[in-house]
Amino acid sequence: MQIVILKDSASVAEYGANIFIKQLQKKADSVLGLATGSTPVSLYQGLIAANKAKQISFASVKTFNLDEYLGLEGTHPQSYRYFMNEQLFDHIDIDKSQTFVPPGDAENPIEACQGYEEKIKAAGGIDIQLLGIGRNGHIGFNEPSSGLMSRTRVKTLTKATIDDNARFFAVDEYQPHLSITMGIGTILDAKKVVLLATGENKADAIKATVEGALTAACPASALQLHQDAVLVIDEAAASKLADCDFYKHIEAENQKLMAKLGL
Length: 263
Hints:
alpha/beta
């Protein structure tokens, strides 16, 4: 697990965007795993800018989103399909038929979950997966107690996650308590994983992910098992890491080595 500690959220977004830009420059038909939430928005703005500047193209790209609320159609303003269209897809040269979000309005959600896994497999697997992290360590909607080898499935949201997301819903608006989410095992199948975290409210989750035990109590700790997982975090999110200075030193050495090798 590589830990990259940067000054602030803007630096985290820029660094994360550059990882995706390099991926698309290396492989134009990449399969991208994408995430929603407030953290990825600035990263997506960086990708939009790079696309408009013709540094990258999404014309041959396929995307798979982590999750979706169960019970919301894609046209609902709080659905993650709507979010992705608004924040990314409507602004880049991507074929929307090649952008996949778990179907929140599926008549048979169990079958839809299996179908989602099959689509990922048919696409050749995910080349690079973007993640955020919840205060309780969840990734996607894999809440604490999720199996570390779980696949795409219907998941009940915890009260903490429901409370965190309540700000996106009007007081009298229906807020789903169920979701369809990629499983932790599905996430671990991605060739590369990039997790972004900013703010002091994520510090406990980051500490548990990096320095805690591998446990279902902190779903993100499963990234300890991944051979190419990068955590890009700001100083506030890193503030409870016991070895914060060590991680900064190692990243500085990595950057020197990459520059020397021309990477």
